[in-house]
Amino acid sequence: MFAGVFFAFWRTLQILTLIPTLGILAYFVHGFTKANELTPGQILTLFIVSVLAAVWAICTLFAYNKTRHNAFFVGFIDLCFIGAFIAGTYELRDASNNDCAGINFGPFGNAVQGYTFAGVTVDVQKHCSMLKACFAFGIMNCIFFFATFILAFFYRRPNEDVVVRETHVRKSGSRRRSGSGSHRGHRRQYY
Asked: Rounded to two decimals, what is the model's pTM?
C-alpha cells in the first residue's frame, strides 16, 4: 500500500521536473534548428533522454495497476533511465562550471545591467542559467528514477498462490459416431 503511494509520488515528481527540462531544451533545439545549425550533442542527448523519460513516467503513472504486475520490467527500464540521465548530465557538465550571474554590491563593485534588489544588482545570463537548470534537473531525475527503481520491487505483486479449479464436463453425443459415444472434457479456470 505505502510502496504504491510512494511510487506514484516519485513518478509525479519525475514528471514535474521533466516538463521544465523538456521546455528549456526544446527552446534550444528550436533555436538551433531555426538558425539552420546542428544542435550540440550535449543539449540533444539530455533532450532525447528527457522526452523518453517523460513518456515513460506518464505511461507508468497512468497504467498504475499494470505496473505492479511487471515490476521487474519497470525497474529495469528505470535503471536504464538512470544510466541515460547520467550520460546526459555528463555531456552537459560544462554548464556547471560557468558563472551565469555577476553580482554587484553597489559601491563595492562595478555597476552591471540587470535586476536590482535592495541595492544589489544581479546580471543574469539567460541561456547559461537555463542550461544550469537542465543540468540540475538531470541530476535530480537520476535520484528520482533510482527511487522508483527501488520502489518498483517493493510495489510488485507478492507471490500469491494461483487457485486453479478444474471442472469435468461430460457430453454424451450423438454427433460423434466414432468412439464410445461420450466425451470427457476438462476446463480450467484461473482465479
From this structure: 0.70
Query: Residue 159 phi/psi, 5° resolution?
Result: -65, 105
Which 3-state string (H, E, C) describes the chain?
CHHHHHHHHHHHHHHHHHHHHHHHHHHHHHHHHHCCCCCCHHHHHHHHHHHHHHHHHHHHHHCHHHHCCCHHHHHHHHHHHHHHHHHHHHHCCHHHHCCCEEEECHHHCCCCCCEEECCEEEEECHHHHHHHHHHHHHHHHHHHHHHHHHHHHHHCCCCCCCCEEEEEEEEECCCCCCCCCEEEEEEEEEC
Per residue in 121-164, pLDDT tens? 566 677 888 888 999 999 999 999 999 998 887 766 555 545 55
Residue-wise pLDDT for 55-83, tens only, equals: 999 998 888 777 667 888 888 999 999 99
CA torsion angle for 131, 137, 140, 142 (degrees, to 10)?
-80
